[in-house]
């Protein structure tokens, strides 16, 4: 998520429906899904086709699968039965008991108590709500009835376990959160015939003057704080969705933020991060709960100099309109790696801050309208500070400041300064997402090349944009551009006065002439074109830029849609270059090109397959691509034949290797091995 990089995508067949959320088995690093209520699927990252993954058809409908870090997956069925995944896989068709009768499950959660997984779920029947507590490994089940609340009903639940006690929090329709305490009964106790009625106590009331909060999702942050996702209603205005954090100890609203793009109504919390759907994107918001105090609860710790940064939440993830937001967002993320200074001491320190010790966000905000010389001088001083845990985020802020000025002033573009930063600092795309967009706009091919070689998290859309730009630019224009040629200078054939300087290398058992002989084809010398792979179809500069694209990480599923938009002539040119590299690699015994950051045979093959998948129909129809495809087919066929011949003598070669091991190291001998 931090790199904004999709890693995998799997789909069920047409007509099948995923009927519960997919989970990850922490012990085996596998994904577990259920489609069509009863069909269980298990697969790993390297599996591509979901239809070929492990499949088990169960005897009852699954409601939810819960995965625990140390307890393994636990499966809850719609009838209330619970099984651990291991037990279920031993006999997928085993009978699953119906624990609930005419009840509908409304919520479920799984927790670890010691070494035992505990599953809790709530049900509803005719307006009554029930709570079930199960320990599947010891076959323990307890049922409780929730105390009724006149005219109001629970909207959502959440729970946590502390000291052998389940704390169930219920968000009711009267804008209140109630707390229910359920002691975990010993396994030796006999179940009571009539369920016990659980009493509840008021924990929190959402009373904000002039507003009404209608919650739809509730999560527990720590013993004194909860987060609520819901709609905020102000008289005379349309309801607005918001995320708010409340202090349950002092009954106060700690902080809140409107979500103008709307949400799905679901809120997740994991490792001090909120996850929610905001508009059409998954938004991750960092938070930090400090020890609850009255001063913090009533807002006395508010930082007057940084009103946009909450004591608890980095809301800036949701905003990117203003420069200061971007600065404070990255700086706030960096604060996570600082020393464990408590919030109160940090806030009191900020109040006494001197100009020379301004925060990064405040300093860059002050430089927003400074002259170019002052801006670059101050930024260089900022980067020259001794290394700190937040230095990388600070460098990201510096690049953001420069790219923002580039967008506001089209005539300003500090190419050398940006190159210096990217080449000497360990940056990533997510730290400076506007940098490559600005470089594309300015047609800065050298900077794009360096970014492609160094950034591990470039989105596929940007990778395609770079490829399109590299193929579109003219060779004449590239002659005047400084490009790093380390990846091509050692193997790309260079022509002087139309006389090509090249060395004929015969290593892999065949040369170009042998290739043509094996394919039973004769190509007249006078008609030999540049598509036969013997000479590079692009200049050195363009070849170096294309090599940078080949090195960029990508996910095939997400790159293909963009690659299909590549113009046909550019696709053919790119395929010619890939074919040229393929031939060059095949000339070497180890199929490795010389040079620094040269493409590998796997990268070349993967991109050739991608390009053919995206443009095969077009290339078959274009006359100018016919000879290229024919030559590529012949060359691959020749290699297949060559390796088939090698396979025939594999046994003899292994025997030779065995004899070499048996031979005494100090004995000199000449042996003749006859290979039949």
Automatic annotation (TrEMBL):
Instruction: Show where the Nucleolar protein 11 N-terminal domain sits.
Output: 1-288
Q: Quick one: a GO cellular component term? A: nucleolus
Q: What is this protein called?
A: NOL11 protein
Coarse class of the primary localization is: nucleus
User: Which keywords does UniProt give here?
Assistant: Activator, Nucleus, rRNA processing, Transcription, Transcription regulation
Q: Which GO terms describe its biological process?
A: maturation of SSU-rRNA
Domain called Nucleolar protein 11 C-terminal: residue spans = 362-674
One annotated GO molecular function is: RNA binding
Cell location: Nucleus, Nucleolus
> Does the keyword section mention rRNA processing?
yes
Q: Does the keyword Transmembrane helix apply?
A: no
